[in-house]
Amino acid sequence: MGRPRTPILSREGIRATALTLVDRDGLEGLSMRKLAQELDVQAASLYSHYRTKDELLIDIADEVTLSIDVSGFETGGWRHGLTVWARSYRAALAAHPNLVPFIAAGPGRREEALRRADAVHGGLVAAGWPPRYATLIGASTKYLVVGAAMNSFARGFDDDVRVYRDRYPNLSQAHRLSEHAAEIDEASFELALSSFLDGLSNVYSREAVSDR
């Protein structure tokens, strides 16, 4: 048998190529036309698998976020649950930062995202947090994680010492930050997370326990 003239498409292959495009060119760099070019097919052939770009992005988002772990609320207290969730959440988003704006827009009707949101909210309420606080904590954790996943503080500095010398004496070592970016970003996230949780512990002792 000869080779088929048109490459055989699968939803998995389409998602993988689309994610590669997003990683390389950003969300604005993904279109069904560009995706078809990458796959060496006609754009019309994609629509039998995905009717719209948003439908495709929803599936990609679900696949990327499958590793986000909300089981900590079942195996430990609320602080453990938030720690496990936040760390795995950041890791999933940081692996594909160009996709973060789409994922961060909200769960909408995405089944996996709603399942995780339900587990987080339920875990916090079961631990004694009033529902309003559970909502605020979920939102606050998202703000912390999304910011950490999208941006690198250390990589924002130029590695040329001449940029800082003389004019910015307090930043005399800033040119070295990008060299240690991964370490700084990880430590900074952990500091922010632990400080956030310590603050919540104070609120919990004042608000949550009295509402049980």
From TrEMBL:
Domain spans labelled HTH tetR-type: 8-68
PROSITE patterns: HTH_TETR_2
GO biological process: negative regulation of DNA-templated transcription; response to antibiotic
Entry keywords, A to Z: DNA-binding, Repressor, Transcription, Transcription regulation
Gene3D superfamilies: Tetracycline Repressor, domain 2 (1.10.357.10)
Gene Ontology MF: a single term: transcription cis-regulatory region binding
Signal sequence residues: none
Highest taxon in the source lineage: Bacteria
InterPro entries (alphabetical): Homeodomain-like_sf, HTH-type_TetR-like_transc_reg, HTH_TetR, Repressor_TetR_C, Tet_transcr_reg_TetR, Tet_transcr_reg_TetR-rel_C_sf
DNA-binding residue intervals: 31-50
One Pfam family linked to the record: TetR_N
Name the UniProt record assigns to this protein: AcrR family transcriptional regulator
Organism expressing this protein natively: Lipingzhangella halophila
